[in-house]
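Lecture notes, part 5. Sequence design as translation. It can be helpful to think of inverse folding as translation between two languages: the language of shapes and the language of residues. The source text, in structure tokens, appears below.
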């Protein structure tokens, strides 16, 4: 996979992309492998190359996101201040991912703040899209259950 082809890094300067690429490793995981668990130290940002990853959020209830598209970013918690994964990532099939070290990315972003800001804004788009999907699924569930009053999210 060429990192400049995914939305997260599109348009990033070639010299900076070389540095980002140097932080990457490619890993292959077998079906049912847990890549990371909720609550663990978040050290890596991942990009799906092949396969199907299930992100599971479990608190009082459970919510699942299925990631199947080439170039999908996950493990974004590694770029957040908390430093802890907020979900678990499980391979639904044999999967190939690109793994980026968040500390090394952070150092690159310190050197090139404009790239860091752009990348983090794009990462917020990923977060926003997943949050919207969760809201829509919740509303759908409430409609099935016959709830008359929509919840307030904001």
């Amino acid at each position: 996979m060429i990192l400049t082809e995914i939305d997260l890094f599109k348009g990033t300067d070639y010299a900076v992309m070389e540095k980002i690429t140097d932080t990457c490793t490619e890993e292959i995981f077998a079906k049912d492998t847990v890549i990371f668990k909720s609550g663990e130290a978040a050290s890596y940002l991942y990009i799906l190359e092949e396969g199907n990853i299930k992100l599971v959020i479990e608190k009082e209830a459970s919510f699942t996101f299925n990631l199947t598209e080439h170039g999908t970013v996950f493990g974004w918690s590694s770029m957040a201040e908390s430093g802890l994964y907020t979900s678990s990532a499980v391979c639904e099939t044999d999967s190939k991912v690109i793994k980026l070290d968040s500390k090394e990315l952070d150092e690159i972003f310190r050197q090139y703040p404009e790239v860091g800001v752009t990348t983090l804004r794009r990462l917020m788009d990923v977060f926003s899209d997943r949050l919207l999907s969760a809201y829509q699924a919740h509303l759908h569930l409430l409609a099935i259950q016959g709830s008359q009053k929509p919840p307030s999210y904001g």
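The translated text above is only one of many valid answers, since several sequences can fold into similar shapes. The chain has a mean pLDDT of 84.
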